[in-house]
Amino acid sequence: MAGIYIHIPFCRKACHYCNFHFSTGLGQMERMLGCLERELVLRQEEMQGHGIQSIYLGGGTPSLLSSEMLESLLRCIHMHYHIEGNAECTLEANPDDLSAAKLKELAEAGVNRLSIGIQSLDDSALAWMNRSHNAAQALQCLKDASEAGFDNVSVDMIYGLPQLGLDAWREQLKRVAEMGVQHLSAYCLTVEDKTVLGTRVRKGLEADIDEEAAAEQFEYLVNDLIALGFEQYEVSNFARAQRYSLHNSSYWQEKRYIGIGPSSHSYSTGMRSWNIANNARYMASIERDELPCEREVLSRKDSYNECLMTGLRTKWGIDLKEIHRRFDLDFEQLHREKIRLLQDAGLAVLRGHRFRLTAAGFFRADGIASDFFILDP
Length: 377
Prior knowledge:
TIM Barrel, 9-stranded mixed beta sheet, 3-stranded antiparallel beta sheet, globular
């Protein structure tokens, strides 16, 4: 099974914290759409023999696409790839784009899962982030999505905001959960280079992230969502009734996927590639029928380290038998003392041939995984 990611590199305005690749100049959208479809055609052989179980339109802001653009793009995918009958088709959206009419158009085009970037239910925080919606629009779009028949809705939220108090954070989680969403992704605010926030922090105009407050918010995030009927199946992702994101799970479980569009990444066993993060150069290359990407063959060390980094972020952890088969390493024997210390600290569990982190260990997942890395080639 495999997935297709399509990057829509346009936004109406730039959020102050975001370092994803996008442009606020919308004049090239139709030309870009033609190039995305052309890249899909050029790369169809990469997925020969693989059923597509997930299509994910990310960005950027895919909800900027007109219904005609979206229908054309999805039609192209179905013409050139084998799409499984129960495939998940996700579209990232901003609340202010999701009118009742727009939701109807999305459903008719074949979108069956929404990922809505709410981020906060505090209007002052949304203004500080330079978001284009307010809290009332966010809640209304969730109501409208449910009434439009969408029964697989995910919401993005951000914690670690400088003005976010613990009580306010917990109330926001409760209000979103009460809207009946099936999935919630929560990310800690990060200060990235080449963003407005990064510049302000560097100049001393904004405080850096309060790591202690963020850690406390993460702890309540996990506990409160579990109490509200969610399962934490990945560090930042929570689902009701096992409504996991099939597409994102393909990243964490090392399944094959291709990325279409500028800045998008692709993966197949032992190989990673990525497209150029420049709209003009991407389109010029595609229009010459040339793929504007770089490729990297993963070394045994890189494959092993990536396997640990992604696997330990999930509730499934890593399969020690699979580690032995792929890398000829006895993980338990090599790391017996580290495993014992983590278990004694309540950060990890080893049961049979499965090694996974606990909820407490998730907040330190990347650091714990790196302690098991192979450092030599």
